[in-house]
Amino acid sequence: MRAARRRGMWLLVMAIAATALLNGCSLQEENATASPAAQKVYIAPGSYDEFYAFMSGGFSGQVSVYGLPSGRLLRVIPVFSQNPENAYGYSEETKAMLETTHGFVPWDDAHHPKLSQTNGVADGRWLFINGNNTPRIARLNLATFETDEILEIPNSAGNHASPFLTENTEYVVAAVRFSLPIPQKDVPIASYKENFRGSFSFIKVDPQSGHMAIAFQILMPGLNYDLAHAGKGPSHGWSFFTSYNSEQANTLLEVNASQNDKDYIAAVNWKMAEELIASGAGEEMAGEYCHNYLGADRIARSEKLNGTKVLRPQDHPGLVYFIPTPKSPHGCDIDPSGEYIVAGGKLATVIPVHSFSKMLKAIEAKDFDGELDGIPILKYDAVLAGEVQNPGLGPLHTEFDGKGYAYTSMFVSSEIVKWKLGSWEVVDRMPVYYSIGHLLIPGGDSRQPWGKYVIALNKITKDRYLPTGPEITQSAQLIDITGEKMQMLLDFPTVGEPHYAQAIPADLITKNSVKYFSMQENTHPYAAKSESEARVERNGTDVHVYLTTIRTHFAPDNIEGIQVGDKVYFHVTNLEQDWDVPHGFAMIGAQTTELLVMPGETRTIIWEPKRVGVFPFYCTDFCSALHQEMQGWIRVSPKGSNVPLKFGTGV
Ligand code: RUQ
Ligand code: CUA
């Protein structure tokens, strides 16, 4: 225990020393290279960036979209968090997206964006991202840049090793970081070893619609499963998950889960699992979860489902193996060839690289070193391809350039280390500011990386920008990797805390980009598809306002006969059929948010008037020269009053 504490202290001291050192000598060097670097990131006004980068927002719960190489923020897509700016999670059409079995959960911790793939290469159709806290996976539609679907994961907690999809987006995965009783039950926490388990969920993705459905779960020993990647090429059919806490500690993990020299990577033969399930293996296990998705009417619905098929590795030899891996591994990255499995041992002194072909041979030869809960543990040396010696401190994540090099983020020594696959020698280092977590190369975890840049996603920013009080944005740094040596190009701030990020050539996205929604195809039950359909209908105390917007007025814009105690539904349809002409709708005293309605779309918020009087509403998006004129009034009379319901453009 004491040794572990001492090592922790030592890492801390080294981190501080390294930070101070890097800090001291950086500025002059950077200024000297500023001008050629500036040219490489300069995108002339009106010109487009070469890549889209999708970054997770971490604790913001959202995804932010950047252009590369400029580092310009293009958009924030709301995913797990409500977004008052466009009413995501507030409007009647989107609220269901955030439903869970715990009720409405309007926030999550989003870590790993993963672009859908075909043949191991990003295809620009969808982006998946995990919710860490209340286990969920979201699917974003890259034609609309909207969240189309969120699936809750039952029998799970701390959904961190997710979504890490397979080569053809057959499956997205979800693994348990915080083991728990599966199924849940009331037991002492001290009974961890006996009662706590992990699970790996394999979620089938429909190749046409993208819809997700849980195919099966694999019940695992109670470790902390941290990160994952699917095999590709020769290793297609397998998925790999790092884990820590092989000690199975249930308190003070910083010490108690850092005792063993080696933890494990779990290698899962999902093809075999698929066949087992098809042949009727596996048991039904209860477990409620919500499945939320956008219908063809662009309205989110939530359905409650129950039960999954569960496989126990003990019952199916060959399904799961453990590969010993030095000290609390974090990242689990597969090189473009599919042969090498790189682990980032946070507390390890080397970067271990495992060989998939050696793994198969070791399995064949039964080169085992014991077992854990009936799962064979392979011999470290039998699977090891090589170790990168003296890489730096705190290796976390690795991406690949497709030219035979790997780039690993070093959290503690704040640097990116470039090393050669096969010879395992370090060939270059680049200091980053500070404490890098993930890193990204466009296509850098795929079969064919596009290369060109590596981006450092730094956890600590400190003095890199003008101070903004105690809270400082996290930061990204863009580095050129086209030459032998890395070249620092650009710092830019991020939204929330980016964990992973992925980038893709812009034309793979722009060719599908939706510019507006067709009015003809609007099947919203409360749409008013022209001004002649605009109206107000009373149904008891529910009042439905079918409101239309077009430059530059609302119809109706005068409404009378509303009463205190009514529940007023504003169904706002934007009649525009042109790109980039949203209209906003804001109602005084509305306790939710405004609406931002895209052309051709209908969105709804509720207003419950509490006072008598005449109240204005207006458009919030500067839509034309007469935007300031785009307003209306609602007259609210006392409950039971006999002021008749009247509406129109002037009543
Ligand atoms: S994590 S800094 Cu949430 Cu992917 Cu590694
Ligand atoms: Cu419509 Cu401003």
What does this structure look like?
This protein is mainly β. The protein is 11% helix and 42% strand. It contains 8 helices and 45 strands. Strands 6, 7, 8, 9, 10, 11, 12, 13, 17 and 18 form a 10-stranded mixed beta sheet that branches. A hairpin with a 2-residue loop joins strand 6 and strand 7. The chain is globular, with a radius of gyration of 27 Å. The protein starts with a helix and ends with a strand. The model is unreliable at 1-25 (pLDDT under 50).
Sequence-ordered SSE layout with sheet pairings:
Layout: H1 2-32, H2 34-41, E1 51-56, E2 63-68, E3 72-77, E4 99-100, E5 103-104, E6 114-118, E7 121-131, E8 136-141, E9 146-152, E10 171-175, E11 180-181, H3 192-195, E12 196-205, E13 212-221, E14 224-230, E15 238-244, H4 253-256, E16 262-269, H5 270-278, E17 283-294, E18 300-311, E19 320-326, E20 329-334, E21 340-345, E22 351-355, H6 356-364, E23 368-372, E24 375-378, H7 380-383, E25 384-388, E26 395-400, E27 405-410, E28 415-420, E29 426-431, E30 436-440, E31 453-458, E32 475-480, E33 487-493, E34 501-505, H8 507-510, E35 535-539, E36 542-550, E37 553-555, E38 558-563, E39 567-574, E40 583-587, E41 595-597, E42 602-607, E43 613-618, E44 631-637, E45 646-648
Parallel strand pairs: 13-18, 36-39, 38-44
Antiparallel strand pairs: 1-2, 1-34, 2-3, 4-5, 6-7, 7-8, 8-9, 9-17, 10-12, 11-12, 12-13, 14-15, 15-16, 16-19, 17-18, 20-21, 21-22, 22-25, 23-24, 26-27, 27-28, 28-29, 30-31, 31-32, 32-33, 35-36, 36-37, 38-45, 39-42, 40-41, 40-43, 43-44
Summarize the model shown:
This protein is mainly beta and 651 residues long.
